[in-house]
Amino acid sequence: MSARDRDGDTTRLHVVTGKGGTGKTTVAASLALALAAGGGTVLLVEVEGRQGIARLFGIRPLPYEERPIADAPGGGRVCALAADAESALLEYLELFYGMRRAGQVLTRFGAVDFATTIAPGMRDVLLTGKATEAVRRRAGERRRGGRDAGGGRPVYDAVVMDAPPTGRIAQFLNVNAEVAGLARAGPVRNHADTVMATLRSAQTAVHFVTVLEEMPVQETVDGIGEIRAAGLNVGSVLVNMVHPGFFDEPVLEDAAEGAVDTGALVRGLKAAGLADAEHTARGLAAEMGGHAQRARAEAGIRARLDGVDRPRLELPLLDRGVGPDELRVLAEHLGEQGL
């Protein structure tokens, strides 16, 4: 998933999806930092209007404007954009028709919001279109009519999209089907076809974020099937918030069955000079049992993921909240796993 192979069949649009609560935005931001490491320039695009990227990096809310937000090791840089359908439509009208002022009038009267509400497929086309245009854009080109105009090397080595959740991702990305009932010809249809050509190319991969719990993993497996059925490319499965392993497998097996040597714990606690060693030992034994049972359940869920024939990367559960420093730690973990 290198961001630096600029013109081959390498992945340049990384679409990150996952069930709510799995840390999808955190993983997308970490992925952007990892891809930028070593001197790359990466665009991180948010499409859900939650300003999650701004909160993670501790910056002011992002506008509809590409701007640098973080440096990466080795001279890399991450830029970010909070895409929204209204601004994307105004940009679209300006590129194709030179109608930005007319579009602003439509916005004032609520026509743009009305149009994207009654035709949600149009909203998805506009949002995915912004990300795919950034993938195709090259230095020195003229963006006349929304078409590529040659130019030099790509402006961005990679684009990472913090996309909608797993349950909606196939519909969100399958813009051709969404637009079929809206426009069978003309600029809107041509725009959708251009977007879909990028999404279905080898340059795009959809990555799934999950945690080691039954429902998120099931949604991941189902989502992978839907993405493949739509003719799109599945990238990696990113397992987030993985608990550390504190004990060897035999100890875990005994603890899961309730066979913890409480006497040994008591002796160890007394040797350490702790008061009320018996009470503390019983509490530790109970915690060991709970940890072992969770580890056993997670092992079963991992076995389900073993059946998914895609690369799997794991990110640790962090002891504290996530901010810029923690994002860099997670990016390092991704790099260490061969990103």
UniProtKB/TrEMBL annotation:
Residues 12-177 form the ArsA/GET3 Anion-transporting ATPase-like domain. It comes from the Bacteria. GO terms for molecular function: ATP binding; ATP hydrolysis activity. Pfam families: ArsA_ATPase. Gene3D superfamilies: P-loop containing nucleotide triphosphate hydrolases. This is Anion-transporting ArsA/GET3 family ATPase.
